[in-house]
Amino acid sequence: MDPTFYFGTIPLIPLSLIALLFALLLVSNTRPHSNRYIVTVNSLASTVFGIYLIHQNQSIGQLTWILASKTSPSHPSGMMSMTLTSGIILIAVFLILAFIAWIFDNIVVHPIQNTLIHVLEKLMINPK
User: Fold this and answer.
1) Winning range, highest mean pLDDT, from 23-32, 76-85, 110-119
2) What is the DSSP letter of 78?
3) pLDDT at residue 5 above 60?
4) Cα–Cα distance between 6 and 68 in angstroms, integer?
5) How far apart are the C-alpha atoms of 11 and 51, rounded to whole Å?
6) For residues 117 and 64, what is the distance between their CA atoms, to the nearest angstrom?
7) Which of 74, 21, 9 is nearest to 48 (CA)?
8) What's the whole-model pTM score?
9) What angle do CA 93, 98, 3 make, to 5 degrees?
10) How far apart are CA 37 and CA 127, in angstroms?
């Protein structure tokens, strides 16, 4: 069965996160930005971007939704049950992909970035 049957085509989680970030920005205009706030927003942004990249990968994205559709009941007992089940599955997929993106970011991306920054700083300080 097509996963869009269960999950629809409205990107509920990204829209919710955008609305949350917009609300945070509206509230934060009344006070100066703290370093903790900036770190939190940057961390959330990199995680959501990682989820997007994982989801857009042809093989992993399809596999994700095939597995998600297999975990959902084949004949939901009603509209409320289907909505609740779909919401739980969407949140679970989001959290699992966020965890995978966080691991990839910390194991692969950050070490490569730190190495490149270190090499570039050496080149800038001691040009040959």
Assistant:
1) 110-119
2) S
3) no
4) 9
5) 13
6) 34
7) 21
8) 0.61
9) 25
10) 37
